[in-house]
Amino acid sequence: MPPVVDTNKCKGAGACAEVCPANVFDLVDGKAVVARPQDCAECRACEAACPNGAISFP
Predict the structure, then answer these.
(1) Quick check: 15 and 51 in contact, CB under 8 A?
(2) Which of 2, 9, 48, 53 is the most buried (most CB within 10 A)?
(3) How far is CA 55 from CA 22, 37, 44, in A?
(4) CA torsion angle for 32, 34, 39, 43 (degrees, to 10)?
(5) Predicted local distance difference test score (pLDDT) of residue 53
(6) Would you say 35 and 45 are in contact if contact means Cβ atoms under 8 Å apart?
(7) Residues 9 and 57 sit within 8 Å (Cβ to Cβ)
(8) What is the mean pLDDT of each run of 10 residues along the chain (58 residues)?
(9) What is the pLDDT of residue 13?
(10) pLDDT at position 56, please?
(11) pLDDT of amino acid 34
(12) HSE-CB for 8 with a 13 A CA cutoff
């Protein structure tokens, strides 16, 4: 399953997009968006990199 972004916690730091090897994320209106969920390899690098704890895996 792809990651889920808690938009209430997301501050748009972009760390998730920077570390994601599959380029799953886009920043839209200052928030991270899982734009390409089908490409997610579930490596969880985004979850570890998010400084706000906004990313989780269901």
Answers:
(1) yes
(2) 2
(3) 16, 13, 9
(4) 60
(5) 98
(6) no
(7) no
(8) 97 97 97 98 98 97
(9) 97
(10) 98
(11) 98
(12) 0
